[in-house]
C-alpha cells in the first residue's frame, strides 16, 4: 500500500454517499448489473441491494461480461442480497429511507422532481418485467424518465445512470460531497477493508478489530 494509493482511497471515501442506494429487482444480465455497479461507484453509492433473478443467482463476479463491464466497481460497491423487493422496500423504509420505484403508474412523476438529498433508494426493475406492481405500490414514490421516442423504455443501466447522476447533481449543490458523509468509525473500517482486503477478511474470521492506520495507510496500532 503506497501512501498515494491510500490517499486516493481516503479521497474517494470522503465523497461516499451512504444515504443513497439502489435496489435491483431481478436484474439478471451481467453487463447491466455490472454497469449499474460502475455508475454507483462513480456517484458514491456504497450499497447496491439486489434481489436475485428467479431463474438463478445474482450475476457472478467471475463472469467475463461482468468483469469487463464493471471496471472493478464490484470491489468498491457492496452488493447486498435481498430475498424479495417488497420486504426490501419495507426494511429500507423502516430505516428512514425513501424508496423511489422507477415505474410508470398514475402517481409517477418526472425523476427530476424528487429530492435525492434525502436518504434515498432507487428501485430498478428487471429487463423483461420491470418493477412489480406490489413493489411500486410499497415504494414512497414512482419516478419516470420522460420518453418521446418510438421505444417505450430505456436499458436499465442507462435509466440507473440518468437518475443517479441527477442525485449527484442535487447532492453536489447541497454540499454533500464537500465533507465526509460516512461516520468516522465507518470511514476507518472501510478504509482498512479497501486498503487491505485479504487481511480484513482474516481479522473478520478471527472476530478481531482492525488495526489503526495512519494518514499514509500504515498500521500503527491495535483497534478497539
Ligand atoms: N417491459 C418493462 C416494463 O414494462 O417496465 C421494461 C423494463 S425496462 C427495460 C428495465 C428497467 O429500466 C425498468 O424496470 C426501470 O427500472 C428502468 N427504466 C427503463 N426506462 C425507464 C424510464 N423511462 N423511466 C424510469 N425507469 C426506466
From TrEMBL:
Task: Give the record's keywords alphabetically.
Answer: Methyltransferase, RNA-binding, S-adenosyl-L-methionine, Transferase, tRNA processing, tRNA-binding
RNA methyltransferase SpoU/TrmH type C-terminal domain span: 169-220
**Which InterPro entries does this chain map to?**
Alpha/beta_knot_MTases (IPR029028), rRNA_MeTrfase_SpoU_C (IPR022724), SpoU_MeTrfase (IPR001537), TrmH (IPR033671), tRNA_m1G_MTases_N (IPR029026)
Q: Where is the tRNA/rRNA methyltransferase SpoU type domain?
A: 20-164
State one Pfam family annotation: SpoU_methylase
Q: Gene3D superfamilies per the record?
A: 3.40.1280.10
Among SUPFAM superfamilies, the record links this protein to: alpha/beta knot (SSF75217)
Q: What class of enzyme is it?
A: transferase
Binding-site residues, S-adenosyl-L-methionine = 102, 125-129, 145, 154
Catalysis: reaction(s): guanosine(18) in tRNA + S-adenosyl-L-methionine = 2'-O-methylguanosine(18) in tRNA + S-adenosyl-L-homocysteine + H(+)
Give the Enzyme Commission number: 2.1.1.34
Which protein family is named in the record?
Answer: Belongs to the class IV-like SAM-binding methyltransferase superfamily. RNA methyltransferase TrmH family.
Job description of the protein: Catalyzes the 2'-O methylation of guanosine at position 18 in tRNA.
Provide the protein name.
tRNA (guanosine(18)-2'-O)-methyltransferase
Q: Which organism is it from?
A: Deinococcus oregonensis
Amino acid at each position: 500500500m503506497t501512501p498515494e494509493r491510500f490517499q486516493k482511497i481516503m479521497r474517494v471515501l470522503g465523497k461516499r454517499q451512504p444515504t443513497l442506494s439502489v435496489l435491483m429487482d431481478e436484474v439478471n444480465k451481467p453487463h447491466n448489473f455490472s454497469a449499474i455497479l460502475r455508475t454507483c461507484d462513480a456517484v458514491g453509492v456504497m450499497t447496491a441491494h439486489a434481489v436475485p433473478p428467479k431463474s438463478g443467482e445474482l450475476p457472478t463476479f467471475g463472469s467475463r461480461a461482468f468483469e469487463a463491464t464493471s471496471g472493478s466497481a464490484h470491489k468498491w460497491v457492496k452488493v447486498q442480497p435481498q430475498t424479495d423487493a417488497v420486504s426490501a422496500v419495507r426494511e429500507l423504509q423502516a430505516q428512514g429511507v425513501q424508496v423511489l420505484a422507477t415505474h410508470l403508474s398514475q402517481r409517477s412523476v418526472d425523476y427530476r422532481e424528487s429530492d435525492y438529498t434525502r436518504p434515498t433508494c432507487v428501485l430498478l426493475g428487471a429487463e423483461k418485467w420491470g418493477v412489480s406492481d406490489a413493489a411500486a405500490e410499497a415504494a414512497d414514490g414512482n419516478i419516470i424518465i420522460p420518453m418521446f421516442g418510438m421505444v417505450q423504455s430505456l436499458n436499465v443501466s442507462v435509466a440507473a445512470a440518468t437518475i443517479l447522476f441527477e442525485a449527484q447533481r442535487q447532492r453536489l449543490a447541497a454540499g454533500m460531497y464537500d465533507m465526509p458523509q460516512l461516520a468516522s468509525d465507518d470511514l476507518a473500517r472501510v478504509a482498512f477493508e479497501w486498503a487491505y482486503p485479504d487481511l480484513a477478511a482474516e481479522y473478520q474470521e478471527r472476530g478481531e478489530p482492525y488495526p489503526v492506520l495512519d494518514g499514509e495507510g500504515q498500521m500503527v496500532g491495535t483497534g478497539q
